[in-house]
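Job type: complex structure
Entries:
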Amino acid sequence: MAEKSWLTDVPHLDRETLLSIRQTLDEAYRGFSRAYGDTIESWFDPLLSFLVWFEKLLLATPWWLIILILAGISHFAARSWKLTISVVISFLLIGYFGMWEDTMRTLSIITVCTLLAISLGIPIGIAMARSDRVQMIFTPILDIMQTMPAFVYLIPVVMLLGIGKIPGVIAVVIYAIPPVIRLTNLGIRLVDREVLEAADAYGVTPTQRLFNVQLPLAMPNIMAGVNQTIMMALAMVVIASMIGVKGLGQPVLKSITNQYFTLGLFNGLAIVALAIVFDRVSQAYARRSQQHIGSRQ
Amino acid sequence: MTDNTIIEITGLYKVFGKSPQKVMPLVREGVPKDEILNRTGHTLGLKDINLKICRGEIFVIMGLSGSGKSTLIRHFNRLIDPTEGQIKVEDTDIMKLGLADLRQFRRKKMSMVFQHFGLLPHYTVMDNVAFGLKTQGVDKKSRNEKARQWLQTVGLGEYGDQYPSQLSGGQQQRVGLARALCTDADILLMDEAFSALDPLIRSEMQDQLIALQEKLHKTIIFITHDLDEALRLGDRIAILRDGELVQVGEPKDILLEPADDYVEAFVRDVNRARALTVDTVMKPPSCRIAADLISDAIRQMKQSKSDYAFCVNEKGYQGSISRESLEKLLEKQGDGALDASVINAGLVLSPNAIIEEVIPDTLESEFPLPVVNEKGELEGEISRRHIASILSVSHHEPEASNEETNEPPPQTDIPAEGA
């Protein structure tokens, strides 16, 4: 049957049109990035210099001081000797197996990405909780951010900003920010209606309601979101290394291309160790700071 | 508006749904709630509520779940806005308040106690009590000072540093009460405040509220689904059914003259012995005599065809006498002075006593017992037959109850509910 029918074939654009659409869009974006790439890149300069400074700081600090600080933080957060000792042992092992510098680089980028994700994500989550319309707009965007393969949105970022730390940070933040936004929104929406009513009945202003009631009561959920955000940022480290982010991801990438199983395994385990440390410490902190809220919910 | 009225609600309607205004014509036509829901998908919450609440009274709004009582109480401080109607508090139309004024109004005029307490779990008990003042921007030292006083008042002085989750339900509600009192608002809204507590704690809390009210003289609007609670606390009671006010009145009006079958069904299971006081059910004394001589007294009693009489003189109530004993006395000793040696000073009942307290005394006495007020004046009498008929009134038509008392029931056994 020479004649094609819409019954047998999915209605589709012809090849030329598709090609021209792709070309037009690509050209337009390329033109945009040529014209504005440098300007946009310069917006991120402060962030870049902070990143560089923080990485240098971590690398320049003596290893024992870093371990001491990390042990201090985890002990302050969790008040558990077991956890503190595990943190010390993990970092000693990481250093012993020659991954100290990469780990510090990863630690620095994860810290910056997490801080960035929290400081953007919580306000967005609050905005979503306040207005159903904002929630309606953001929910599909978050869905896209979480399901779109990371490589796909790496392309325009790299086209715009080249390879390096900043595109890496952007990619990691895009990938890791949805949980903290979603759970901030959810947490605020789940706050006990009667408690909110009580606050309203005593004449709170919207700001008082947000900071004295909604955020503290949403904290268990927000902390769960922060925790997931950290985990997802760590998971993104390997992919970010493809666009030039130094750290534990690069040896993994190298071992994929060269089939170095052991190298990959060591660095993979270092990422796992970081993840577990971050997770346990942040969860223990969350639990400890919300023990009074927990028993009512 | 009279001087004594503090809150006045006129023509209040509340329709829940997407476009309540469109449904209002149907509501005004008197289309029933269910039909409105079926035809338009809107729920009729409140229908034509008109209320006046007086300063210093405990006004109880009572109804079953779904009757709209919680919706109604939320209109007082505009946690819910009405579809139509006017709410005046101390001559201010609160529907006209802007956001900032409404906040001030909520901070200063009214405070609220919630069924599930509505405490802030991340605040200590002290901070919870001081919450209203914190909202107003009072500095930490003076608000804690005040919160401490109120915690003392409700009997939780030692618990300031605890968190709500460490307290029992009754204690948490005391915190809720202290928080409400801490802002010095004149009007207290209590939304099923004691309903989540177990019966023993609940009655303790009711006692505490009554005791506090005697000192503070707040205007309290109290929501409950429990008629016993309503009768115990309420100076006046409003009964709400399907969003409409069925009856507003004093507890005895509700109990003894229920407005319709719905109220009567409510009232049927109430323990009248506990809900009514002596003065609400007593009858005027049937034979009151003022005589100096025994023969005089007998003559007066014969005139009123009575077997017994209460003696009064210028000093007030003296005691009771029975015709039989006087006649025996007359036979034995001849006429004599009707004085303390003859008169049985015996038992008297206080008009404020609840029926339950006087049942044993009344049952033991062959003749009606006198009701005497604090000044020593005879106010009325109560007989065991009369009490029996009051307590068993639920088995008869309420209107018939008065006739019942004249025609004593054949048996004078104690009704089970009075025991």
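Summary: Residues 47-294 of chain A form a domain with the MetI-like fold fold (CATH 1.10.3720.10). Chain A touches chain B at residues 192, 194-195, 197-205, 208, 212-213, 216-217, 219, 290, 292-293, 295-297 (CB under 8 Å).
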